[in-house]
Amino acid sequence: MRSTQRSADPPDPSTVPVDRVLLATEGRPIPQSAIRFAARWHAPVRVVSVARVYGISFALPNPWLMPSRKEWQEQRGIVDDAITALEKRGVEATGHVVGTRKATRAIVREAVREECDVIVMAAEPRRNRFVADLLWSQEPYRVQRRADLPVYLVTED
Questions:
Q1: Nearest to 115 by CA among 19, 39, 40, 25
Q2: b or e along 24-38 (b: 16 or more beta carbons within 10 Å of the residue's beta carbon)?
């Protein structure tokens, strides 16, 4: 059972022992500031990007609601660029793209599956909670609320 009360702020990064990092994005390009933050521990990094599935039709997957080839390729490019930048910093990195309607759940599952100690995501400024629940760009804050491990949100450059 998940606790209902969570601290909004993760612990100081210098005090957290990290063996593996998950660098995640809900589809936006990963800024250099997030890559630098993920590389600070010199631990292996798993890069994950979410290709958004827009829904289902009659409880069945509908090909018109799935990400297009172009969207898949864009997300693969984001992952490849992040891996290249991390490797230039001397950090071991791997990654892949996940297609889902529920990015928060997919990112948290990936962190658990890969046995990551922290999640790092780029984030826009926080919005009003009512409006934020409707915006895809506020996904990092939903991940922070749902995850049982520290989630570090890095504001864009």
A1: 19
A2: bbbbbbbbeebbebb
Residues β-bridged to residue 82: none
- Whether 139 shows a pLDDT value over 70: the answer reads yes
Q: Which of 19-23, 24-28, 30-34, 91-95 has the lowest mean pLDDT?
A: 24-28
- How far is it, in rounded angstroms, from Cα 48 to Cα 65? 21
Q: What is the pTM of this model?
A: 0.83
Residue for token digits 């290249």? 84
CATH, domain 18-155, list 3.40.50.300, 3.40.50.150, 3.40.50.620, 3.30.450.20? 3.40.50.620
